[in-house]
Design brief:
about 190 residues, Rossmann fold, 5 helices, binds guanosine-5'-monophosphate
């Protein structure tokens, strides 16, 4: 997605060879116009898949996921990372190691909000080693719902997550694929994906 690539070049900052900061439009301040386009692009790429629900992880997945859900006219459910007094029973949980926070969290979704008859689209802001997506897959798998695929705003193609998920047979659609962050430069991948 060209506009997203331009935005990454113009506003992203490379924190290290493996971490990109995009706080001005995705991870802290949010650009709603870009998020709307992102949501529409996800809806286009997964059209015809019979999606009944979008799921993501709080907090940075919510903006792109809600726009995808709005375009597809289906609900969005976000997994919580922190324990909540109001969310205690009937929880579907998975352990997720956070790439950026370097800690393991238990993520949770109420079993009320995913049903066996659902076809789910998983959305997240970044794909690195695939832990967040795998955690959401584990949660959905506990319900017997179908997984239509995984939509990612920014995939770092030099890390293993995309390869692992595609090898497992999941359809992974990434709107920007970064090949390298070496020497402070963002290089996008031109590689065609089958
Ligand atoms: P994974 O679970 O695939 O290893 O990492 C994905 C998660 O870690 C995403 O939910 C995202 O929040 C965070 N993440 C991974 N890499 C980056 C990065 O380069 N920049 C930012 N801002 N977040 C990242």
């Amino acid at each position: 997605m060209k506009r997203l690539e331009m935005k990454i070049i113009e506003e992203g900052s490379v924190l290290s060879d493996s971490v990109l900061k995009v706080d001005s439009f995705l991870n802290h301040q949010v650009d709603p116009v870009l998020m709307k386009e992102i949501g529409e692009e996800f809806a286009r790429r997964f059209s015809g898949a019979g999606i009944t629900k979008v799921i993501t992880l709080e907090s940075s997945g919510i903006a792109p996921a809600v726009m995808a859900a709005l375009t597809m006219n289906v609900p969005l459910v976000f997994a919580r990372k922190r324990k909540s007094l109001t969310l205690r029973e009937g929880l579907l949980t998975a352990e997720v190691y956070s790439f950026t926070k370097e800690e393991t969290n238990t993520i949770a979704i109420s079993d009320k909000y995913i049903e066996k008859s659902d076809t789910v689209l998983i959305i997240d802001d970044f794909l690195a080693n695939g832990q967040a997506a795998e955690g959401l897959i584990k949660i959905v798998s506990q319900t017997g719902a179908a997984i239509a695929g995984i939509g990612i705003v920014i995939e770092k193609a030099f890390q293993d997550g995309g390869k692992l998920l595609r090898e497992k047979g999941y359809k992974v659609e990434s709107l920007a694929r970064i090949q390298s962050l070496e020497n402070g430069n963002v290089e996008f991948s031109e590689e065609a994906l089958v």
